[in-house]
Amino acid sequence: MKKILVTGGCGYIGAHTIVDLIENGYEVISADNNSRSSERILESVEKITGKKVKNYKVDLCSYDDTFAIFQENTDLSGIIHFAAYKSVGESVEKPLLYYENNLNSLINILKCAEEFAVDNFVFSSSCTVYGNPDAIPVTEQTPTKPAESPYGATKQMGEQIVRDAVYNHKGKAILLRYFNPVGAHPSALLGELPIGKPQNLVPAITQTAIGKLPQMLVHGNDYPTRDGSCVRDYIHVCDIAHAHTLAFDYLLQEKNQQNCEVFNLGTGNGYTVLELINEFEKASGVTLNYRVGARRPGDVVAIYANNDRARQLLGWDPKYNLHEMMATAWKWELRLKEDENIFNTPNAGLN
Length: 351
Ligand code: WQD
Known about the structure:
By secondary structure, the chain is an alpha/beta fold. It folds into 2 domains: 3-183 and 234-265, Rossmann fold (3-Layer(aba) Sandwich), CATH 3.40.50; 201-232 and 268-305 and 320-350, UDP-galactose 4-epimerase, domain 1. The chain is built from 11 helices and 13 strands. The strands form 4 sheets. It has a 7-stranded parallel β-sheet, with helices on both faces. It is globular. The protein starts with a strand and ends in a 13-residue tail after the last helix. UDP-4-deoxy-4-formamido-beta-L-arabinopyranose binds at residues 86, 88, 126-128, 178, 180, 199-201, 204, 216-219, 230, 232, 273, 296, 299.
């Protein structure tokens, strides 16, 4: 059984990916210091898969602590690197925290991968690297633009670091550019756990609908789009997760044509904020209390993916539609309400 190290394995996309990897025959270990996640999420992974996943509660910014994981697991076939801070707003306030954490952890993992000859590497990247594209849908060849935030810059730099690292080392890498991951596992045992007030649209919607937030604010409806609100490519987290399994299959079967390849992970459909709210109301039966406010600085007007490469080369075929994305997100929020402390995450005050 091929064994994979998933860093950030207790995070939203990390945990969903671990479930998919296990269901497709991989053995998995996690490395997550739980500074922004709860290790209890792996109990849900065990309920879904029947497999207990070991988590190394380690700060990957410590080379020695990272090295110790590899010393204990010399049979790794590959690594998926999710571990990073990801709040756009926080990165603007604390840029050095983001450069230090996101880049040092990546460099340590890559150094150990080279030291222990772990030759298959999947990097969690983001459509953020495209900035405000001149033409949509974006393909993997669409030129990246200056990042809109230090967070986005760490993803652009991260891609370059991975590209250069595998070039010298005989390893192979895949960069997965997620569009907007949303929704939750159909079991409602896994889902997004925003820390503090949610910055992202879907948790802001579900927390408003459940009464955790008094009212949701739509950041602008005067954009040059069909209803004035921003357009994004929302993609179900389980579809994102399965793309990681397919990416590993692709690398392990040596189907890669270059030593570092990029894939867009989006549905190829763009929806506006107001269309998403409408779909949520239909899926939940809840009328959302929202108002329209000013634009949010740094927001991209419209972006959605051309996902032909992932479809043709990875055999990826995203299954969840917008209704299911909203329905699973809502089912998860309802479950969290049932048990408020189910995953008490630290730093709850973080916005
Ligand atoms: C989507 C739209 C907001 C909240 C995110 C992550 C980024 C990357 C890509 C991972 C925008 C509007 C939001 C609210 C709103 N993911 N909105 N009211 O900005 O596309 O980027 O996905 O790498 O890290 O931040 O997603 O969900 O924040 O915003 O009107 O309360 O919803 O203005 O138009 P975004 P988002």
